[in-house]
Amino acid sequence: MTDLTDLDSPQPESPFERIRQVDPDGYEFWSARDLMPILEYTKWQNFKTVLLKAQIACENSGNDPADHFTDASKMVAIGSDAKREVEDMHLSRYACYLIVQNADPAKEVVALGQTYFAVQTRRQEIADADVLAELSEDQRRLLLRQRIKLQNTDLASAAKTAGVITALDFAVFQNHGYRGLYNGLTADAIHRRKRLKKSQHILDHMGATELAANLFRSTQAEEKLRRDLVQGKDAANEVHYQAGVVVRRAIAELGGTMPEDLPSADSIKKLERAEKKRLAAPKTKRKKNEENE
To answer: How many helices and strands (H and E) does the chain possess?
Structure first.
């Protein structure tokens, strides 16, 4: 098994890294058509089934699939220098992570893909820790919100192994975590307390401190589910609840503000749009803006 802590040793270039692309705005993406043969799928219709499972997993984790799976097209050769346009999909790193989690586990290359994206996630965690203290509140929010998206997928996977199967099961499971951390409040109750609109997601309106508490709650629950080989929905729910209780107790012992008492923040979507616009600006203008900050 690959040691994820040994990240500085030279590694041969991964086939997943070779097909990585960067759009004009500087955002990385992968083509589903390029990823398909690497994962040893020969028919697009079969691979679309995996894409659908990954999108469902994305939604079940509280994320918008449209942010990670973008419909696209691709020109492919059909012989005699002729080409035709075929259906494709552009994928974020998070989307690729979900795809390899939902692909045929019997394929050796799928395990390779899981390792690759796990290593890249660990690299990002280390980088995050190094720069977090130097970031602004908005930058910390962007970083932590993205990390929670990935972490909630890991938590959902661990919960599924324990027996949390249906969407309703998972909603109940998630509420147990919130109840432990928020002194008995469910997601809906937190939503009302924060005075958010029906369409607004509570995680998208948390400040960096509250996001960090929820990230810790999620990681601790996932680790205990896997470490103790927890089985059964009730047992999994209790693990998640106790993880929330432990984090809440730590906040109290440190004299921190309880998460339900923290103010709601502007939508993270607004920050994401502003960051994308900033990155899309010409370099000279961007440099001038950064100098004025």
So the answer is: 12, 4
Q: Supply 18's token pair.
A: 């070779």
State the average pLDDT over residues 126-155: 78
Q: HSE (CB half, 13 Å, CA atoms) of 286?
A: 11
Longest CA–CA separation in the chain, Å: 72
Side-chain half-sphere exposure of 17, counting CA atoms within 13 A: 10
- Residue for token pair 């992570």: 97
Q: What is the pTM of this model?
A: 0.57
Read off the pLDDT of residues 194-251 as tens digits, 9 standing for 90 and up.
Answer: 999 988 999 999 999 999 999 999 988 988 898 889 999 999 999 999 999 999 998 9
d(CA 262, CA 38): 46
Per residue in 136-148, pLDDT tens? Answer: 888 888 888 888 9
The residues facing 90 across adjacent strands are 31, 70
182 contacts 244 by C-beta, under 8 angstroms: yes
What pLDDT shows up at residue 10?
A: 37
User: Residue 275's closest CA among 27, 71, 67, 69?
Assistant: 27
Retrieve residue 102's tokens: 């939902």
Distance CA 17, CA 112 (A): 12
d(CA 66, CA 97): 15
* Model pLDDT, residue 1: 33
CA triple 191-193-199, angle to 5 deg: 25
Q: Which residue has the higher pLDDT, 268 or 3?
A: 268
- Angle at 162 (CA atoms; ends 160, 165), nearest 5 degrees: 35
Q: What is the DSSP letter of 198?
A: T
C-alpha distances in Å from residue 227, one per residue of 8, 62, 183: 27, 24, 26
- Pairwise CA distance, residues 33 & 76, whole Å: 10
Contact (Cβ atoms closer than 8 angstroms) between residue 60 and residue 156: yes
